[in-house]
Amino acid sequence: MRSDSRLPFFQKVYYRRRLNYPATTVFRIAVKPLGDTKLTSTNDFILTTSGLTKSFGGLIAVNDVSIDVERGSIKAIIGPNGSGKTTLFNLITGALSPTSGKVYFEGQDITRTSMHQRARKGISRSYQITNIFPHQTTFENIRLAVQGCSGAGVNFFGMLKDAGSFNHFHERVIEIATIVGLDPARLYVPAALIPHAEQRKLEIAMALATEPRLLLLDEPAAGMSIEEIPEVIDAILRVKDSYGDDLTLLVVEHKMDIVMRLSEEIIALAEGKMIAKGTPDEIREDERVLTAYLGDTNDKLA
Hints:
Blueprint (H helix, E strand, L loop, with lengths): L10 E6 L9 E6 L13 E12 L2 E12 L3 E5 L6 H9 L6 E6 L2 E2 L5 H7 L1 E4 L11 H13 L12 H18 L15 H13 L5 E5 L10 H15 L4 E5 L3 H7 L2 E6 L2 E6 L1 H5 L2 H8 L8
Parallel strand pairs: 5-10, 5-11, 8-9, 9-10
Antiparallel strand pairs: 1-2, 3-4, 3-6, 6-7, 11-12
């Protein structure tokens, strides 16, 4: 077929069309290659929100929040009670639909996708209130999460159809439990009977079992004593060290000592708006953040 010299930089695509035209009719479509053209979403960001807003009647819980979360980073979202932190998490995970704005995950618009669709794409979350099966053992809690993610079938009696799958699940449970630092002596104890810090680590382990690329931790130290807090910090750091850039962490936490120790960058919210972002040192000295937390600027954050 004769080439078209007038389009030297175009790729020619040919196809046959059977409706309304003779079968022998051939059409020519010129498609310009991408070349070095840059896409609007960059691979540097695993998560982006654009103008995200959520209203409940006359209350604007999240107001025009735009953030970028770099792949492989640890970011924290802080703010006083009622600042919109949990609502923002709910918008990211799909628990709530925004009034306006967009959510992008790995460059794809997921604004109108459901929670379970986002989970399949690689977004997982822990909650303020521990979300475990209290009467199952620690091991069984993690195994159920691993099995649920794998889609492995069971027979009429609830037993795995494939014995090989059982062995794989067992190895995976032990691997995840080791990563988060769960006490091996408590793996076969009902989850309701293990200490609160262990329950928090268990919940992180269950979230990891879904093989996320973005893990959202909603107040991971909630309800912990001063003595228990180092355990959850250690667990989060162990997770990050183990997964490296394959896992991105976004943390909401009220305890500023945890935020300052964990985060590479901090996003501060107040009354639903983003008021500041920066490194821990920058946020510690930011007058807007101090005012939001303390009402004046006479003291410094921890």
